Structure formats: C-alpha cells, structure tokens
Amino acid sequence: MKKTLTNLEVANIIAYSNTEDSIAQNIAIKFPMSFAWKFRKNLNRLKTVNDNFAQRQQEIISFYSDDTYSYVNDKENSSRIVKDEYVEEYNKKLSDLYAQSTDLDIDQVKLSELLAAKIELSIPELDILSFMIDEENE
Q1: Could you give the C-alpha distances from 33 to 16, 36, 37, 121, 126, in angstroms and in order?
Q2: Max Cα separation, the chain?
C-alpha cells in the first residue's frame, strides 16, 4: 500500500527504532513472523529515505557553515551560528526539507494480527508502528 510520510516522520521512526529500548531492538518482544518480516522490510525502506534526507540536511548545514553565512560561536569546539540575516532563509530550507513528503510502498499488517499476538505496546511504540497498521480492512 502507498503511504505518504514526511522526512521528519521518517527520521523520528528511524531514530526511535535505533534506540536501545525500542521494539525494533528489544529481543524479548516476539512478534508473529509475518509482522516481524513486514516491519523489517518497512524499516529498510524508511532507512533509505532517511539516509537521503540526512545527506540533504547535511548539505544545507554545510552550505551555511562557511564564513559568508555564519560565524564561530565557540572557538574551542568550532561551533557555528548562522548570521542573523540568513537565519530565516536557513530555517526555511530546513523546514521545507523536513516537510517534504515521500510516497512509499508499505507492507501493512492488520490490527487484528497484532491483537491476536497479545503483545503489549506503549502509546509511543504504537505511534511508531502506526504507519504500517491497517485498521480499515478489519
């Protein structure tokens, strides 16, 4: 099924899935094989989108990291601050990138399959999984 996700949504899903206590990393949580396989495939699709997003984000940050657009704020660690006259432009470019949408082929799982597995998930975990749960065709 085609699903439209923004770069920010994809980045949040990937960031959470990479945390030590996420359902993607917790070997104590046993999903039905059909769900686990779809979840893994979907994460791999999202990782590709996220890698492209991260590269474009880094390009924007790098562009504004020279002396024309920014200044060194802390000489010890070389942190830079975008100059006031470029902040709006910089923020717009990043905001536009975060809001950019991608249509993805997502392998969906029926909500009833998850319910039958009797797996307990927190609200944040459900939020992360919601992109692939099909509750319409129950």
Answers
A1: 21, 5, 6, 17, 18
A2: 59
pTM listed for this prediction: 0.84
Q: Look up residue 61 and give its two tokens.
A: 């940050």
DSSP state string for 71-137: EEEETTTTEEEE-HHHHHHHHHHHHHHHH-EEEEE---EEHHHHHHHT----HHHHHHHGGGEE-TT
Q: Are 113 and 31 in contact (CB under 8 A)?
A: no
99: left (phi over 0), alpha (psi -120 to 50) or beta: alpha
Higher pLDDT, 50 or 114: 50
> Given this model, what pLDDT does residue 138 score?
57
